[in-house]
Design goal:
Length: about 160
């Protein structure tokens, strides 16, 4: 009887040692070297625009103006995150956007009225704020409705961080 309980204790000890080793390896290798995180990037990293958010039927969007604009990336977590931003954009009401430069990468608007996607890969430290520059070049002024004096560039219809 005594031998049986020793064998059971030995098996339980080996099982616990094996599980502890797996957890340690996950923490060291999986999280440190492969970039696995305990918090989801979409819950921790957000974008902030230097223009107000506008709404149509509860759908939010942002009008960036002709010229230089800034988009702020904010990390609210205590972990470094690596990710990719996708901006869904459309031309202004005048359909006159020529080139968009996002952090030195140029995007040319092809067909008028067609939406395009812009991408930016980033790394951000814990609690860090970073800025991306987005420059919009139009063929000429784009003002709509006489009372709105803004010179429209592009419309950001939404964004995703992964």
């Amino acid at each position: 009887m005594l031998k049986k309980s020793r064998v059971v204790n030995l098996l339980v000890g080996l099982f616990l040692l094996f599980n502890s080793t797996l957890i340690f390896l996950y923490a060291v290798i999986g999280m440190k070297y492969f970039g696995h995180k305990e918090t989801e990037i979409s819950n921790s990293v957000v974008l902030r625009f230097d223009v107000p958010t506008e709404y149509v039927l509860n759908d939010s969007f942002w009008w960036l103006l002709d010229g230089s604009n800034q988009i702020k990336i904010v990390n609210f977590s205590n972990e470094r995150h690596y990710g990719r931003i996708k901006l869904n954009i459309s031309d202004n009401p005048c359909n006159n956007v020529e080139i968009i430069t996002l952090n030195k990468t140029n995007y040319v608007f092809g067909n008028q009225g067609e939406d395009i996607e812009l991408f930016h890969v980033f790394s951000i430290a814990p609690y860090e704020k970073k800025y991306m520059e987005i420059i919009i070049k139009t063929r000429n002024q784009c003002n709509v409705k006489g009372e709105d004096k803004r010179n429209f560039g592009i419309r950001i219809n939404g964004w995703v961080i992964r």
